[in-house]
Amino acid sequence: MNSKGKYYLTTAIAYTSGKPHVGNTYEIVLADAIARYKRKDGYDVLFQTGTDEHGQKIQEKAEKAGMTPQAFVDEMAAEVRRNWDVLHTSYDRFIRTTDPMHEKKVQQIFKRLYDQGDIYKGSYEGWYCTPCESFFTESQLKDGKCPDCGAPVQKAKEEAYFFRMSKYADKLMQYIEDHPEFIQPESRKNEMVNNFLKPGLQDLCVSRTSFSWGIPVEFDPGHVVYVWLDALTNYITFLGYEPEGESTEEYKKFWPADVHLIGKDILRFHTIYWPIFLMALGEELPRQVFGHPWLLVGEGKMSKSKGNVIYADHLVELFGVDAVRYYLLHEMPFANDGTITYELLIERTNSDLANILGNLVNRTVTMCHRYQNGVMGSHDVCEPVDEELKQVCLEAPEKVRRAMDQLKVGDAMDEVFAIFRRANKYIDETMPWVLGKDESKKARLDTVLYNLLESIRFGAVLLEAFLPDAAQKIYAQLNTDKTDFDSLSSFGALPEGHQVGQAEILFARMDAEKKLEEVAAFQAAHAPQEEKKEPLPPHEPKDTIVYDDFAKVELTVAKVLHCEKVKKSKKLLRFELDLGYEKRQVLSGIAQWYEPEDLIGHNVVVVSNLAPRKMMGLDSCGMILSATCGENDVRVVLADGAVPGSHLS
What we know:
Blueprint: E1 6-11, E2 14-15, H1 22-40, E3 44-52, H2 56-65, H3 69-86, E4 93-96, H4 100-115, E5 119-129, E6 134-136, E7 154-163, H5 166-178, E8 183-184, H6 186-197, E9 204-205, E10 207-208, E11 224-225, H7 227-232, H8 234-237, H9 249-254, E12 259-263, H10 267-281, E13 289-292, E14 295-297, H11 312-319, H12 321-331, E15 338-340, H13 342-372, H14 384-405, H15 409-430, H16 432-435, H17 442-463, H18 468-478, H19 512-525, H20 547-551, E16 555-565, E17 573-578, E18 583-588, E19 603-607, E20 613-615, E21 618-620, E22 623-624, E23 626-630, E24 633-636, E25 647-648
Helix pairs in contact: 2-3, 6-10, 11-12, 12-13, 13-15, 13-17, 13-19, 14-15, 14-17, 15-17, 17-18
C-alpha cells in the first residue's frame, strides 16, 4: 500500500503530579485507535505523547513526599508510561519536558519572543490556581474559586514577564472563522470564541518567581518559564523545531500537527495561547484541536477525596485489555461527558464482546471443524439472504472511514459491530446445524459457513485499530494473513480449501454478582498506600474526667466554605467555616494529609468554644477534630449530612 501522506497526532502531555486515572487514560487510548487506523489506511503516522514535569504543584508534591522534584517526576513519568503500555498503546515517541534539549529550546523561544517585543517585564497581582497552574482575574472566578477545576485560589503578587496576547487576538479570531474545522466539536469552538476571545484577551503571565521548579529564564535569574509556555512547545521542540536556526527535515515533514487531542478542560490553552505563540514564531497552526469530553464515575468527576478514582491498570487486571479499550472507545460520546461504573463495564463486556463477537467467532469456527474438518468449501450455492450480509460487509469500510475522519470513534465501532450483528442474524436465518444433518444440503452449508468466516474476517480487519489483541486472536482462528484494507475491496479473499485455526473463547461471560465481589476484594487489596493504616502506637490513657468536665466542651458541626495553605507553613491549612449562626476562621495542622480542595463542601466537627490563639500571625478560633489512624496518618472527623450549627452531645 502506497503512503497517503503524513499524519501527526499528539495527546496532551500528562501532568506528573500523580498516577493517571482511567479518565486521563481515555485520551491515550482514543489517540491510539486513531493512529492505528491511519497507519492501516496507509498514512505515515507520528504519534507523540509524554509527560509535563514542571510547575509549582509538582514542587509542592515532591516536598511533601520528601523527594527532589527531579526524582519525583522520574518516578511519576515511569508510572504514566507503564499505564500507557498496559493498554497496548502504539505511541511512536514518549517525551518528557525535563529533557535538556527541550529546556534549551524553550529558553531560546522565550528569548526570541522577548527580543521581538512580544514578551515584556512587569508585575502581576491576581488569583492563582495551583492545580491548573493558571492565573485569573476577580471577574473570571466562579463562586470565588477556579473557573476550570473549582479548587481554591490564592492571591498572588509577583514580578513577572507577560506575553502581549491582545496583539494577536484579531488574527486568531479571523483564523478560527476561516477554518471552521480548527476547533472541534463545534460547541467547544463557540465556548472559546464567546467566553474568551470576544470579551478581549488580557496579556498572559509567562514567568514565575515564587517557586523554582521550572525552566530558568536564561537572561533573568530568579524567573522560571510559565509551565504552559514550556509544555505547549513540546509539540514542535521534539519534532525538530529550531528557534535559532533551520529546523529538521522531520519537522518540515510532519508540522503542522493534523490533530492535537486534548481534554476539554485545557482547550483554552491549546486553542488560544498555543496558536498565538505559534503566530508570534511565524509557524503554521495545527490543522485541528479536538477537545474530547470527560469520563465520569457515575455522575461526578474522579477525585481521591471522594474515594471514586478508578485506575486503568486495575481495570485491565480485572477485565482484560480489550474489554477496557472497548468500553473507553465505544461508550464515550463524541461531545458530551461519558460515565463508567463496574456494573456498566460488566454489562457491555457480556452483551457486546461475549455475546455478539465472541460467541459468533467461536461457534462459526467450531462449526467449520464439525462439518468441514476445518477446511473451507466452495461458496457458489447462493440465496438472496447472502447478498444482504455481503452488502453490510462491503459498505462497512467506507462507513468506518467517514466516522474516523470526523474522529467519531464510537460510531466507527458501531459500523464494525453491525457486521457481527448481521452475521449472528444470518446464522439464525440459515440454521447451519439443520443443513449439517442433510447430506444433500452440504454445498449450501459450505456457502453459509464461508460467508460467515469471510464476514468475521471483514469485521476483524476493521476492528484491529480499536481492539488489536482481539483482532490478532481472530486472525489466528481464521488462520489468515488477509488483514489489510485492500483485502476488503471485494467479498471472497479467503480461498476455497483454506484450513482454519482452532476455536478459542475470545470473551467469556461474567457472572455480574461474582465479578463485583472480585472487584471489591481487589480494591481492598490495592488501596493506595496512603490509605493503608499503620498500627496505632500504644495507648496511654489520660486522667479520668467527670461529665461536668466534658460538658464544658462545645462540639459544633461546621461546613467548610474555603480552605487554603498558610504561606510559609508546611503544616497549616486555613479554613473558613460556616457554623450555622456565624462564620469563623480556624487553622489546622493537617496539610501533610490533605490538599486544600479535599475538604471544601464537607461538614466537620469543631471545638467551637476553644479560646482563640494566633498561629503564623493569624487568629484560629476553634479546633477541627481529627483522629490518629496510624503512626503517620490523620483523618478529619466528618459530619456530612448533619446541619451546620448543630451540636454533638
